[in-house]
Amino acid sequence: MSKIGKKHILVPADVKVAINGNKISMEGPKGKKELTLNTEALETKFENNKITVTLKNASDQNKVFWGLQRSLINNAIIGISKGYEIILNLNGVGFRANLKDKQIQFQLGFSHDILFDIPEGITVKIDKQTKITLNGNDKQLIGKVAADIKFLKPVEPYKQKGITSEGQFILKKEGKKK
Hints:
- This protein is 22% helix and 39% strand.
- By secondary structure, it is α+β, with helices and mostly antiparallel strands.
- It has 2 domains: 79 residues, Alpha-Beta Complex (Outer Surface Protein A, domain 3), CATH 3.90.930.12; 82 residues, Ribosomal protein L6 (Outer Surface Protein A, domain 3, Alpha-Beta Complex).
- The strands form 4 sheets. The protein has a 4-stranded antiparallel sheet, with helices on one face. The protein has a 3-stranded antiparallel sheet with strand order 1-6-5. Strands 2-3-4 form a 3-stranded antiparallel sheet, with helices on one face.
- The longest helix is centred in the middle third of the chain and has 22 residues.
- It is elongated.
- 20% of the residues are buried.
């Protein structure tokens, strides 16, 4: 049995939820979201500001989708009510970022500047040219954008230069000894 699937999802008062067939529509202060549900294996109900996901029949394949569907609905509700935020730091001499319209211009020690396009639904704020704050209501999209930005200059383990997430631990390696 799924420990995650059994839990109820509490819906905040400012979020509206409607279940129509195999679609669930949610609307909150941070935006709208619509998900497609697996109605063949699972049953989703919305009563008394709680969403419950239950199994129709307990086959192994259906148990796989149970916790997943509950997590996707929960992430969407958190996204449209509170939103998600990821903070990235640029570590290195001369590393900086600037905002230009719908792009971020990075100077990361290469011979050229790197332009990164910001997708729809993500807002970017840059502090002191070395701290990038990404905000959005889609957990998957904001994680993908953060991963793509971190891929531009991965952290090297000797001097720890590169792009890191806030709170990310990097094991520092010892250099050559004489």
